[in-house]
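in:
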């Protein structure tokens, strides 16, 4: 099922789709932005594939980010669960080079918060490099800076 995030659709990946992406196998009707999937996205997808084979697969959610206007795949996003003892899950996304965070980021994060809530989470968290320009997007989406440690900024928000 797709989740709408502003100008993007977040298409939840099936086991078969994730396996195909790990091997960079594009279907004839798909169009991918240059650089998709990135090495980082492949790492997330490999972890997702491991989780999909476990009994609690519903606690993980990985998606392709598709521009609604033309279907171009421009990145990936996910929610990692299950909620911890405080009800928190980790959310995050990555856009391919040239795709503007300021145009898509807040909507992606808000869509991920909705997914997290549907998964039973009561809080979302994220960790970014201290120098990550994307931090402003997370703040605009409503996450608060919780702490900094070892050049990493930890963010969170109750949902």
């Amino acid at each position: 099922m797709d989740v709408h995030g502003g100008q993007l659709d977040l298409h939840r990946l099936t086991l078969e789709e994730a396996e195909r992406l790990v091997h960079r196998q594009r279907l004839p009707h798909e169009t991918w932005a240059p650089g998709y999937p990135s090495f980082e996205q492949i790492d997330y997808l490999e972890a997702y594939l491991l989780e999909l084979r476990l009994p609690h697969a519903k606690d993980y959610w990985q998606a392709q980010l598709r521009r609604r206007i033309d279907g171009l795949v421009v990145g990936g996003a996910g929610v990692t669960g299950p909620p911890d003892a405080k009800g928190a899950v980790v959310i995050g996304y990555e856009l391919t080079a040239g795709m503007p965070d300021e145009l898509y980021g807040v909507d992606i994060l808000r869509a991920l918060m909705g997914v997290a809530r549907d998964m039973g989470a009561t809080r979302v968290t994220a960790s970014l490099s201290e120098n990550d320009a994307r931090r402003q997007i997370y703040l605009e989406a409503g996450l608060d800076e919780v702490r900094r440690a070892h050049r990493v900024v930890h963010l969170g928000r109750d949902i």
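note: The chain has a mean pLDDT of 93.
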